[in-house]
Design goal:
Length: 178
């Protein structure tokens, strides 16, 4: 964590989600978009859409790291939101902590990086919004260590910084729980 600089939060001026790419990319070039790759990685998959070379996950079971609950996933309007793909380091948070200085290609890589993506409970993801570890941690306290460790890894990989409050909150989790 010592490699992560501590600075103030930059303004959100100029932030637009599309600056991180328009939709899900295919960073590993396996023919499946990042969303489906993460669903396949994080769920126990029960079925794929026929004719997609096992790319489009239709149904599966998620042991949600944010809540510790088991969630049944079924692709479809009104059901897919039960499981969402979280950016562990939220795009807006990243923008305010250095991503505005990344090249457009690097921002797209950040947005689709499996290290920064996690299938989670939809309502918990919505409650997180663009918060950092100083203002939001998952309800499942048993996941805090892994969660803040991933945030550190992502911020280090993309040369992002933390605010003092975020650094202190992350440090506190690591000292008391890990």
């Amino acid at each position: 964590m010592k490699e992560i600089p501590i600075k103030g939060r930059a303004p959100k001026t100029g932030y637009d989600r599309d600056l991180f790419g328009n939709g899900w990319g295919d960073p590993d070039r396996n023919g499946c978009d990042a969303r489906n790759d993460i669903l396949a990685r994080d769920l126990t998959v029960h079925s794929y859409k026929p004719g997609t070379r096992e790319c489009v996950v239709l149904t599966g079971t998620l042991l949600d790291p944010f809540t510790g609950k088991t969630i049944e996933f079924q692709r479809g309007q009104g059901t897919s939101n039960a499981v969402q793909i979280d950016h562990v380091v939220a795009l807006s948070d990243a923008w305010q902590k250095g991503a505005q200085q990344l090249t457009p290609e690097r921002r797209v890589a950040f947005s689709n990086d499996p290290l920064n993506l996690l299938a989670v409970d939809g309502p918990s993801n919505a409650s997180k919004g663009d918060s950092d570890a100083a203002t939001w941690l998952p309800p499942n306290r048993g996941f805090w260590c892994e969660y803040v460790t991933r945030q550190i890894e992502v911020k280090h990989k993309y040369d992002l910084w933390m605010t003092k409050a975020e650094h202190d909150a992350t440090d506190q989790v690591l000292e008391r729980r890990c």
